[in-house]
Amino acid sequence: MKKYMLITIGVLLVIFYAVGCKTADNQTATPTLVEKEETQAPTDAPTQKTEPTLPESDHPYVKVIDDFISNCRREGFDSVYADGILYDLDSNGVDELIIINTDFDADPTSATDCSVYTIKGDKLYCILDEKQLVLRVGSSSGKVSVVRKDNSIYLKIFTDGGNDDGSLYRDDYYRLENDELVLIHSAEANYRYDDKQSYAYVDGQTTSCDYYESFADGFDKLVLKDDSFSSEEETIFDLREKIIKSN
Fold it and tell me: Please, is 50 exposed, middle or buried when counting C-beta atoms within 10 Å of its C-beta (0-12, 13-18, 19+)?
């Protein structure tokens, strides 16, 4: 009887040992799905977003643009509220830089200004310093353009200021002479809801709104920029890149 019990116990020990070895082999040979994920390198790890670095340049116009970019970013805005034109206003072979920008320090509210720069020798000159186009209130708007008449080129600054009973338009035409912007023509039209009360001035002379419009139509439009900044980032950065590539 004892002999049979010993044999039975031995057989059971052999079976338990065999099962234990098989289980151990399964645990070490095949890693679980979690273990596979932990050992594989991540393929879609998030990358830290960094602001693109602008190529450096010592060109005076690039430095001007960079100042406007920095000022906007110091104010905490994602977009750069500035636009620009490169145009040789006096046909001397040197492009002037015309900048339209929002001045957030204007009183009593932010305003859109126009500044013009030129280069003489290797020095930068500001020949129009932040002429105000419009205050950023209501429906006022402004435009800056380069126009031509009788072989003369003008910088035209247009403002739609609006008023209580209509719209007030004003045009200033500047010509670059001896490195200075000289005001050559001024025109203004006051369009009232009552047409009989509408009136206009052209170069100080009282006239009709129809004459004001015909006077403005007498200039060929070469370049036009408004103050909407609909593509402010692309435009000002493209202008910056154009200046760098041209030098």
Answer: exposed
The pair of three-digit structure tokens given for residue 70, joined into one six-digit string: 């920095």
Please give the single-letter amino acid code of residue 127. I
Per DSSP, the three-state class of 69 is helix
Q: What is the pLDDT of residues 120-174, one digit of tens each?
A: 988 999 999 988 887 766 667 889 999 999 999 999 999 887 666 667 889 999 9
Using left for φ > 0, alpha for ψ between -120 and 50, and beta otherwise, residue 88 falls in beta
Rg of the Cα atoms in the chain: 37
- Sequence-distant (≥ 6) Cβ neighbours of residue 73 within 8 angstroms: 80
Tokens 């044999």, located at residue: 7
The 3-state secondary structure of 108-167 reads CCCEEEEEEEEEECCEEEEEEEEEEEEECCCCCEEEEEEEEECCEEEEEEEEECCECCEE
- In percent, the amount of the chain with pLDDT more than 70 equals 67
Can you spell out the DSSP letters for 8-63? HHHHHHHHHHHHHHHHHHHHHHS--HHHHHHHSPPSS------PPPPPP---HHHH
- Tokens encoding 246: 């041209």
Quote the CA–CA distance of 146 and 220 in Å, as a whole number. Answer: 9
**Looking at the DSSP assignment, which residues form a beta bridge with residue 166?**
163, 192
Alpha carbon distance 243, 185 (integer Å): 31
What's the whole-model pTM score?
A: 0.71
For the stretch 48-63, pLDDT in tens is 434 456 667 789 999 9
